[in-house]
Each structure stands twice: as structure tokens, then as C-alpha cells.
TrEMBL record:
Subunit-level organization: Monomer. Associates with the 50S ribosomal subunit.
Gene behind this protein: hflX
Pfam family, one: HflX_C
Superkingdom, taxonomy of origin: Bacteria
Subcellular location: Cytoplasm
Name this polypeptide is given: GTPase HflX
Matching SUPFAM superfamilies: EF-G C-terminal domain-like (SSF54980), P-loop containing nucleoside triphosphate hydrolases (SSF52540)
The Hflx-type G domain, residue ranges: 198-365
Function: GTPase that associates with the 50S ribosomal subunit and may have a role during protein synthesis or ribosome biogenesis.
NCBIfam families: GTP_HflX, PRK11058.1
InterPro entries, per the entry: EFG_III/V (IPR035647), G_HFLX_dom (IPR030394), GTP-bd (IPR006073), GTP-bd_M (IPR032305), GTPase_HflX (IPR016496), GTPase_HflX_N (IPR025121), GTPase_HflX_N_sf (IPR042108), HflX_C (IPR045498)
Obligatory cofactor(s): Mg(2+)
Keyword Nucleotide-binding assigned: yes
Principal location: cytoplasm
């Protein structure tokens, strides 16, 4: 039913430079997207305009140049590095006599190829259906024909109206199933919240090295490759952070400039891991010349998903591609780590990353001196030893044990909850 192209098709690429900043796209990134989709690039047609043309997006002369290139190269598809309106797509297809795909459609197709889990496939299908619903008319030759003939007379519904109704019903069905998945995720998050287990969410521009870093820290073995959108399905793993204890690290989908809104909406359930995280690890490809623009693009998406208020630790990755970069921690004026320079591929600087995580997540460490009577020494002393919280211990003549303990405030609160006899009763003033 839907217009999707197969990997290996022959394509003409179109990239236009605009003087308006909001329309700016990057050609090298576009070529990486096309390569990630498995398309064979025949020719790149470039041009400059002040603003998009309402009929063809490009000017009429440039549109004719594209059509001539399609015929000369026997191309099967034209891919634009820009978002086209449904009318512009139809006009270009009539002129070029082949299919035309815009940047949004290309990204959706890559997502469709990469989705592995049931949830991921549902999310991509939802985004595709929402995108295709505005372009439905172009896929059929009979859409305006009314039902007629013996046994077919009825409501007078056109084929186009029937297809739109079926689309709406399918979208509703997917939303219901995604709502169930969302509730399951919410249950998991509530359970972690009750156990005071913090979640650390990896975010960053696509191909910044998030999955490589995830594998380095967790030994998870998730798919990592030097291509755009290698990771689509979220993965959660436990890690141990000193002075914090067990934490959950979440690997998420990479962001990109002008990420389609349909995708952001479809991936809301997945991106909740980012919204409700205790800390975001913003992974940046330090070897990319445009890393500052990539940081801005990620921050824009974080605002869209209401995650801009979550604390952030920047991880400058791929320092092995830089000549004089050394692993290090950069701190703000208060001495709090704000940036760590590492190489996930080589494993350099990972110890510094854990140091920064400890400082950012431990929050306020609590220090107490406890006097434990003999009846409770065995129970409490073993718990503090398991947590590595004992600083000093000393027995009094009457058999009481004096303990100096230092541990994260979350661990102290957890112990308080579990014990019927409150620990506050044993604190020395």
C-alpha cells in the first residue's frame, strides 16, 4: 500500500543552500543518511536559493535539470535533503516520471529498516502512517473513483476516503498498543524509583558513539556501527557507580537536525527514559568540526520532549581521532564536573567518567556516628559493610559498638525504610 523503496535503488540527490538559516542542511550528513539507507548515489545536484519555490521547492530551471539527470542516469528515485510538501512531491514526480522522496521520508525509511523490537516497529509504523496520510493520493490511480456497479452501490465513499478511514483506524490501533507498552515502562520506572535506583540516559547526535560507550561501560554487546541511526531500540543495563550503588544506564535513539516531528511524537514512550532520568550523558563526537551545531540540535530536541531541565554531563567522545586531546574532567566554577573527554572505542578516560558520575549522582553524602547496642550489632554492622560505608569502628567497655559511617543519602533513606527499629535512635548527637 505504501511507497517505500528497496535498498540498492539508483538515486539522484538534491541539495539546495538557502540564505535563510532555518532551511540550512548539511550535504555530507545527507550523503551519510543516503548511504545508511542502502541507496546507490548516481549524482548530486546542488543549487542556491533565497527561499523554497512553492511549486517545485527548487526553481523551474533546476527542476528541469533534475528531470534531465533522471533520464540521463536512468535513476529510479530523486531524494531531496529537505522537507517537501505533498503538492511539491506530486509536481516533481509528474515532471521527473519517477518517485520523489524528501528528507523526512528518508529518515523514516532508515528507521523502518533498523527497528528490531515489537515496540520499535510499532513506533516507526505510527510515524510512517502519520507522514503518509498527507501524501496518500499519490500512491493510487483509482482514488477518486466512487464505488459503483452491482453489489457495490452504497455510501458513495471514494476509494481515497476509504483508505483514509482505514489509515485512521490503524493509527488508533497502534496508539492503543503503544499505550500498553508505555504503561509497562511506567511500572518499571516506578519500581526503580521506589528502590531509589537512579537512571542515567545516553543522549546525543546520531553517530556520536553512544552505543560504543554503552558497550564499553556495560559489556552489553548492543549493535554499534559507524553509521547514522545504528541504534533504534532502547536498551537498559545495570551499572555500579561508587558511592551511589546500582544505577540503570539507558541507550537511546540518536537525534539529528530537523528530526521529523512525527518521529518525536511516535517515540514519546521510549524518550520518557530521557525525561525522567536522574542524569543525561550528552555524548558528543569531539572530532566532528560541527560538534557545536550538533550540541544545539540535540538541545532543541530535548526541549521538544520536555527534558531540557534534566541535569546534563557532557561526554566528549572520539578523542582518539584528535591529535593532542587527553582524557580529562572539566569542572564549573563550583568544582562540579560538567564535561569528560574520553575515547569509548579505545577505553581511555572511562575511569574519569565513573569519577564524574559518582560526583554528580551521589549528591549529598551523609556521615553519621552510631552507637549500636549488642542486640543489633550483627544486623546493622553487616549491612554497612555490604555498602562499604564503615569509616571507623570501636567497641566500648559495655559492649556497645561505635560506628562512623559515610554513605549516599539515598542508601541511608533505603535502610531507614527497611528497618523497623529506626537508625535515628542510634545516632550520637
Amino acid at each position: 500500500m505504501f511507497d517505500r523503496y528497496e535498498a540498492g535503488e539508483q538515486a539522484i540527490l538534491v541539495h539546495i543552500n538557502f540564505t535563510q538559516e532555518g532551511e540550512w542542511e548539511d550535504l555530507s550528513e545527507f550523503e551519510m543518511l543516503v548511504s545508511s539507507a542502502g541507496v546507490n548515489q548516481l549524482r548530486v545536484i546542488t543549487g542556491s536559493r533565497q527561499s523554497p519555490h512553492p511549486k517545485y521547492y527548487v526553481g523551474e530551471g533546476k527542476a528541469q535539470e533534475i528531470a534531465d539527470a533522471v533520464r540521463a542516469e536512468n535513476a529510479e528515485i530523486v531524494i531531496f535533503n529537505h522537507s517537501l510538501s505533498p503538492a511539491q512531491e506530486r509536481n516533481l514526480e509528474r515532471l521527473c516520471k519517477c518517485r520523489v522522496l524528501d528528507r523526512t521520508g528518508l529518515i523514516l525509511d532508515i528507521f523502518a529498516q533498523r527497528a528490531r523490537t515489537h515496540e520499535g516497529k510499532l513506533q516507526v509504523e505510527l510515524a510512517q502512517l502519520r507522514h503518509i496520510s498527507t501524501r496518500l493520493i499519490r500512491g493510487w490511480t483509482h482514488l477518486e473513483r466512487q464505488k459503483g456497479g452491482i453489489g457495490l452501490r452504497g455510501p458513495g465513499e471514494t476509494q481515497l476516503e476509504t483508505d483514509r478511514r482505514l489509515l485512521r483506524e490503524r493509527i488508533k490501533a497502534i496508539l492503543r498498543r503503544l499505550d500498553k507498552v508505555s504503561k509497562q515502562r511506567d511500572q518499571g520506572r516506578r519500581a526503580r524509583s521506589r528502590a531509589d535506583i537512579p537512571t542515567i540516559s545516553l543522549v546525543g547526535y546520531t553517530n556520536a558513539g553512544k552505543s560504543t560507550l554503552f558497550n564499553r561501560v556495560t559489556d552489553a554487546g548492543v549493535y554499534a556501527a559507524d553509521q547514522l541511526f545504528a541504534t533504534l531500540d532502547p536498551t537498559l543495563r545495570k551499572i555500579d557507580v561508587e558511592d551511589v550503588g546500582t544505577s540503570i544506564l539507558a541507550d537511546t535513539v540518536g537525534f539529528i537536525r530537523h528530526l521529523p516531528h512525527d518521529l518525536v511524537a511516535a517515540f514519546k514512550a521510549t524518550l520518557k527514559e530521557t525525561q525522567e532520568a536522574a542524569l543525561l550523558l550528552h555524548v558528543v563526537d569531539a572530532s566532528d568540526e560541527r560538534y557545536r551545531e550538533n550540541i544545539d540540535a540535540v538541545n532543541t530536541v530535548l526541549e521538544e520532549i520536555d527534558a531540557s531541565d534534566v541535569p546534563v554531563l557532557v561526554v566528549m567522545n572520539k578523542i582518539d581521532n584528535l591529535e593532542e586531546a587527553e582524557p580529562r574532567i572539566e569542572r564549573d566554577e563550583d568544582g562540579i564536573p560538567r564535561c569528560v573527554w574520553v575515547s569509548a572505542r579505545e577505553g581511555t578516560g572511562i575511569d574519569l567518567l565513573f569519577t564524574a558520575l559518582t560526583e554528580r549522582l551521589s549528591g549529598t553524602m551523609v556521615t553519621h556516628t552510631l552507637r549500636l547496642p549488642p542486640a543489633v550489632i550483627g544486623r546493622f554492622r553487616s549491612k554497612f559493610y555490604q555498602l562499604g560505608a564503615i569509616v571507623r569502628e570501636e567497641y566500648e567497655e559495655n559492649g556497645n559498638l561505635i560506628l562512623d559511617v559515610r554513605l549516599p543519602i539515598a542508601e541511608w533513606a533505603r535502610l531507614q525504610k527497611r528497618e523497623h527499629q529506626g537508625l535515628d535512635d542510634f545516632i550520637l548527637a
